[in-house]
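Allow me, if you will, to draw on your knowledge of protein folds for a short while. Thank you for your consideration; the sequence and its tokens are set out here:
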Amino acid sequence: MLGVAPDDEAVLGWARAGWLDVHGGGRWSTVLTFHTRPEPAAAWSAMRACLARDAAWVAEHCEPNVLGDPRELFGDPQEIPRRARVRGECRARVARMEIALLLYAYAIEPSDSQRARRAREGARGLGWMQALVGDPEALDYRTAATHAEMRENMRALATAAGADEDIEQPLTVTIRSYIEAARGSLLPRQRRSS
């Protein structure tokens, strides 16, 4: 189950290619399974196109997932639906990137299991990220500075993907800097023994 609607254009395109089967879902989630293993070159191309497009969108439009001013939130009847729409779109874009990495890992698994493992680890990191950027239960988990850094890192990732450069390093930086941010970190901190 992933944080993107079953009628999402990218998901439907991958389904038409025969790479995955969509089993249903809701407004912001879909259940799918992988079907025919893509050719590695086709999966690589699809992943790069997805990263270039959706990471650029996140860099430009994704807003911080914070509570903000309660007067604005509860004083304007359009604010909660607006937030759900805008933050949900951000979550869906990150979920698309997660699926693209998983498809690439699936494509190369028989020929390069180590690289496939790293791609799956990247997808897992994007899965955590998509849960934080748009989930109404995850408000205020990241600071404004962390959010701004994530947008800049997404911009660098989009640029690398669009220029056919190595994406592993910018993807890793994007995920680590966001997931390991101090406020509300999902990763337990190691205590030093004295």
